[in-house]
Structures are given as C-alpha cells and as structure tokens.
Amino acid sequence: MAKVRVYEYAKQQNVSSKEIINKLKEMDVEVSNHMSTITDQVKVKLDEIYVKPKQEAHKIEQEKAIQKNKSQSNKNRRNKGKQKVDNKQAKSQPAPKTSIAKKTEDVTMISYANTLTVGELAEKLGKDASEIIKKLMALGVMATKNQDLDDDTIELICSDFGIEVEKEEEVDETDLNHYIEADLEEQLIERPPVVTIMGHVDHGKTTLLDSIRHTKVTAGEAGGITQHIGAYQIKSNGKPITFLDTPGHAAFTSMRSRGAQVTDIAILVVAADDGVMPQTVEAINHAKAADVPIIIAVNKMDKEGANPDRVMQELTEYELIPEDWGGNTIFVQLSALQGEGIDDLLEMILLVAEVEELKANPEGRAVGTVIEAELDKGRGSVASLLVQNGTLRVGDPIVVGNTFGRVRAMVNDLGRRVKKVGPSTPVEITGLNEVPQAGDRFVVFEDEKKARQIGEARQQKQIEVRRGDQSKVSLEDLFEQIKQGEIKDINIILKADVQGSAEALAASLKKIDVEGVKVNIIHTGVGAIKESDIILASASNAIVIGFNVRPDNNAKKAAESEKVDVRLHRIIYKAIEEIEAAMKGMLDPEFEEKVIGQAEVREIFKVSKIGTIAGSYVTDGKLTRDAGVRVIRDGVVIFEGEIDTLKRFKDDVKEVAQNYECGITLENFHDIKVGDVFEGFVMEEIKRS
Ligand SMILES: Nc1nc2c(ncn2[C@@H]2O[C@H](COP(=O)(O)OP(=O)(O)OP(=O)(O)O)[C@@H](O)[C@H]2O)c(=O)[nH]1
User: Fold this and answer.
1) Pick from 371, 203, 232, 207: which is nearest to 296 by CA?
2) Which residue CA neighbors atom 13 of ligand 1 most closely?
3) Alpha-carbon dihedral of residues 683, 686, 687, 689, nearest 10 degrees?
4) Is 173:227 a contact under the CB 8 Å cutoff?
5) Which of 79, 101, 494, 664 has a C-alpha 20 to 30 A away from that of 275?
6) What is the pLDDT of residue 304?
7) What whole-number distance in Å separates Cα of residue 301 and Cα of residue 339?
8) Burial category of 380 from C-beta neighbours within 10 Å (exposed 0-12, middle 13-18, buried 19 and up)
9) How far is it, in rounded angstroms, from Cα 234 to Cα 212?
10) Annotated binding residue at 109?
C-alpha cells in the first residue's frame, strides 16, 4: 500500500531527510537511509511531532477559511468532479448532491503524489475502503478497492469528508539522482582521489600515466598483466590513488557535459622546455570551470633546455602561483621518462586529497559513472565503471545511463575477477543489455524488475528528449531565463583571431551590467572554434562567441548536436550590443544571417586587368552571385565583402551548386590563396510567431 519513504515524509514536512533519520534514531527506529520506508505505526508517531503542532496552529484559521469557502468551493468541486465522473462513466448520472460529512477527528488534510487507489485513499483518510466505495457509488462511480482514482474524484471524496487535499509535485522516477542517497556523516569514510592528467600535446601526459602505472603496479603485482579498463589504481605509501586513463581536458569535459563529475584532482603537465602553450591554458580553464584543484607537474626536467622558473612565471598569469611565491598552487618537478619525481607527485596528490576531505559511504547504494564502454563480440556490452559511492557487487541489478541489466562479471584493472568493489574503484562489468556512453551515471537497484522499469523509462524519455529538441542556453531565450531567475551568470566562451581582440572583447563583455546578472568569461582563446570549446560550452551552459573566427567542421557538428549557441561577429561593439540586448530582452531577431554554402579555393589565376580569379569548388550548399562572402583562412575570417563575378567556365551564372567548380572574383580583395574557404551568406528575415 502507500508506504512512505523517509525522504518523501521529509519533503511533506518540509524538513531534511537527515532530520527525520535522526528523529527516528531517537525513537529507536532503525532505518538505513533516506530511501527506507516508514511503517504506518512509525508514521503516526512522526505525525505527532511534525503534523500535529502545525495542525493545531492552522486549525482555527483553516476552519474559518473552510467555512467561508465551503459553499463556493463545493459548488466548484462538484462541477469539476461531475465532468470527470461523466467522462469516466458511460452511463452517467447527474452528480448527486454531496453532503458535507462531519470532519474526522484527526485528519484535516491529505496529500498524495501521482495517483491513489480507493484503498490507499481510504487509508489516508482513516476510513474503511467500503465507505469510500459506497460514496463513489453514490456519485455514480463503480470502483474496486485497487482501482486508481483520478484527481477530481479524489478531491470530491475528500471534500465530502471535509478534508483538504493537496497533490504533490510528481516524482520523476526516471531521474537517477532521485535514488542517490544522502549519506550520514558518520557513515562516510575516506576514499581514494580520482585524478585526471591534462596538458598540452607532447608535454608528456601519456608518459606520465605509464610511468606511474609501471613503477607502482606491475612491479608490485607478481605476474600482473595490466588491463586497460579506462582507469587504474595504484598505491603510494599504502594509500590508493585512482588515475583516469584518458588524458586530456576534452574527455574530462565531455564527461562533465553529461553531468558526471568524476575527477577530484587535475594534474597539469607542463614541459619545462616548452612552457605554457595554448592547450595548457585550455586545460586550466576546463579544470577551473569544473572547480577541480590543480597540481602542476613540471615535466621533462631531464632535458637540457628545462626552465621550471619560466613555467612558474608563465602560470602566475592564470592565478596558479607557487607556494614559494606566496600562492597556494603545488608545483612538482619531474621527469616522466626517467621516473624521477613521481613519488613526490603522488605524495602531493594524497596531500591535496586529504585537504579536500574526499569521502564516500561504502555501505550506501552503489552509484558512479561510466568511464568507457564498448560492444565486445564475445562478451556483449562491456562497460568500465568508476564506483563513486557504495559497493558494487556481482549480481546487482543496475541502471546505467539509458540501459540496464545485472552485473554478470567484474574485472579490475589488473585483469582479475572481483566480486565487489568500493568507492573510487574502476571496474569493468558485463551484463548490460546495451552499450552505455562514457559519462553516463549508474545506480544499483534492489530488484531487477525495478531496474528494468527505470531503464526502459529512461530509454523512452531519451527518445522523447531527442525529438523534443531541448536546447541549452541560447541568446533568444536568455532574457526569459533571467526573468524567471533561472540564470544569474551568463557563461561565455570567446574565440578570436588575435589575443588582443579576445582580451578587449572579454573586458567589455564583463562590464555589461544588467540587473545583477553577471557575464562570466570561462575561456578565451585564439584560433578557430574547436570541438573542445563546444563541449566546454555544453558542460558549462555557455554561449560561444567567435570574433573573426569560425567553427571547424567537428565543432559545427558538435554545436548542432549539443545545441550550443555559437555567435559569430566581426565588430566588437556589435558582439557586445548583442549580448547586452539579449540580457535586456531586446534582442532584435528580425534579420538573421544564414550561411548558404562554402567553396574551397583550389587554384589561383592572376589576371592583370581583373585581379585574382579563384578557381573554386563548392563543397557545401551553394554560392550565389548576390550573396555576401567571407574569406576564411585557417579558421580565421580575413575578409568580408561581395562577390564581383561568379562564372562557370566562361559564363556568368547566378548560382553554383555543391560539387561544381566555378571561378570567383571578389570586390576589392585579391589576396586570395589556395586553401582559402569562401563562405556565402544571406540575411534572412525571421518570422516571429
Ligand atoms: N626527455 C623527456 N622526454 C619526455 C618526458 N616525458 C615525455 N617525454 C617525451 O615527450 C614525447 C611526448 O610524450 P607523450 O607522453 O606522448 O605526450 P602527451 O602529452 O601524452 O602527448 P599527446 O598524447 O600527443 O597529447 C615523447 O617522445 C616522450 O618520450 C620526460 O620527462 N623527459
């Protein structure tokens, strides 16, 4: 029947689950967590504490209100109820007059979520089910004890008993977070840190990961064949540390964009002979956006040109200041190649972990994140999971992302079969009915039926969401979201052709002041908009502004699938105006630029009288004679203007379609090079509904 869980009861009473759990403890009632059910007897006792006093306080007022509204509201309810009853009943009868029964002694108000059966309603009202059935019959509704009642009928019955009724917000059963338990402080124990290694290309991320693993795992484990499962765990001074195997910030943020925060500490590898490079800065911004502490590994110290001071100096610009210089960032100098300084690094990781007080409850429900997953010919769906809380066991019914199953077998990072694993441990499982995605959450359920039900519901929901075109923040609906208090910060990622304009634009954007809404620049960079920018935007609910730059193809695709709003500009004040207008709800979307196609310059002909003719190939869409055109070189817009002539062989043409060659000259621009891309665009009026 309508058993109440701890968290539900807490919600009804507007107090925390923890308070209820503590209260139950005082009452010597044992509950394991906030999902535990409360027996009716216990509920009555709790009501004594939480409901009674409130009722006393409100009783007089309520009674007054009820008296006052009685005639009116009953009339309304009856009408409302009548419609529903009529709808439900083929042989409808006029709704009989309902009489106001005398109010029961103890219940003046009930609440319910979703729906109630006749029996459940009877229980809530403290009545016999037969009494309710009789009332329903009087209303012309034939119902059995286990039949669900609709909202209007519930209201009608309750009003007949003079009881107020309130429908609670529906619980979204498909939301996995809903099953994640709040752990009690005393259940929590220390857990190993989960570390991701980031840094610029070739600064030594992979070498460092290998070096740590080889010195710490294979050596100690006799005959241990390490298995690639997306993460591994080592021990330093007896304490475990988990490393995610995919280095780089893109993987890190793509997980985060799926709602999974798995990394506790980021190691930023900077080669001592190369210093801070563009991807170093990206990695810093990604780690900062995720609010993850950063340890700097100054690598390649064995190299001749190693200059750790320069690295430290350069990083001060990003507020990563060594302790010696009065900051609080940990720097470790090492050589990943020679295995030097690795122990220091591990020690520092454990130190940061200690400060962060990373904890988990091994007794809790097992939850965590998919690190990677694939379809294996022999074993079916294979997923590497990082357990983040609780203990995962072979045989557990589990929902993973939009798939489900039962954990058939588990293998750890040393290739050994294991029966159970605790928090911060990576493990590879089989037994899922489909392949989940990296970054998906998993939750273990008590019974397989429930897991299946939730898994299937999530699958269904995913299909609907895909259809429903749910977008992230876009400038168009920004104002709406600000108005409704959904947004306090507007996050922006800024890519520009040169550092100077990126800085100037960032500085001006930050100055926009609209009703306490803050502009937050989470990343700026120079060059084309890349997929990793879009992923960061998606994870941080940000808008991407491109100043004189364009997204590359992967970024375009990612922006489309992630529904990230990308705004391209050539004039600083226009970019600022647009954001400001959007924040004030004055965005003027009457005309919108539409890119109609792209052509690639394959050959150049210099003709003295005409200038440069670009022998081009339309790779995408079409180009038209009257369209505007931009010249893009290496992702950067170098010219915007008009097409002068558009020819197919010797003939002037109005348009050239995809996969055709053409000759193009531009008005007032002749510095065209092979490999340049012409982007054709038109201004289109937007129909507002
Ligand atoms: N001398 C020296 N070379 C190193 C060190 N660490 C890495 N290298 C070398 O630097 C090169 C790049 O190292 P990787 O570990 O592949 O760098 P990465 O950051 O993983 O590079 P990507 O995977 O391309 O992003 C390799 O040739 C390594 O041998 C070091 O401590 N000293």
Assistant:
1) 203
2) 204
3) 180
4) no
5) 494
6) 92
7) 11
8) middle
9) 8
10) no
Predicted local distance difference test score (pLDDT) of residue 85: 35
State which amino acid sits at residue 524. Answer: T
Local structure of 659: helix, strand or coil: coil
> Do the annotations mark residue 293 as ligand-binding?
no
Q: Which of 415, 426, 416 is nearest to 392 (CA)?
A: 426
What separation in Å is there between the alpha carbon of 307 and the centre of ligand 1?
16
Is 651 assigned a ligand-binding role in the annotation?
A: no
Measured distance CA(56)–CA(354) in Å, rounded: 49
* Contact predicate 120/2, CB 8 Å: yes
- Stretch among 33-42, 277-286, 307-316, 376-385 having the lowest mean pLDDT: 33-42
Strand, helix or coil at 254?
Answer: helix
Name the band, by pLDDT with cuts 50, 70 and 90, for residue 80. Answer: very low
CA distances 584 to 91, 168, 244, 546, Å, are: 56, 35, 43, 21
Residue 589: its pLDDT value, please?
A: 52
Query: DSSP letter string over 143-159?
Result: --TT-EE-HHHHHHHHH
Site to probe by mutation for ligand 1, drawn from 196, 202, 277, 333 as the one with most ligand atoms within 8 Å of Cβ, is 202
**Residue 329 Cα to ligand 1 middle (Å):** 23
SS3 string, 388-440, reads: EECCEECCCEEEECCEEEEEEEEECCCCCEECEECCCEEEEEEEECCCCCCCC
- Rounded to 5°, the CA angle 576-578-581 comes to 105
Q: What is the ipTM of this complex?
A: 0.98
Residues, the chain: 689
Spacing, Cα 207 to ligand 1 middle (Å): 5
CA atoms of 43 and 55, how far apart (whole Å) = 16
| Spatial distance between the Cα atoms of 403 and 451, rounded to a whole number of angstroms | 9
The secondary structure element, H or E, covering residue 203 is none
Distance 205 CA to ligand 1 centre (A): 7
In three state form, how does the secondary structure of 18-82 look?
Answer: HHHHHHHHHCCCCCCCCCCEECHHHHHHHHHHHHHHHHHHHHHHHHHHHHHHHHHHHHHHHHHHH
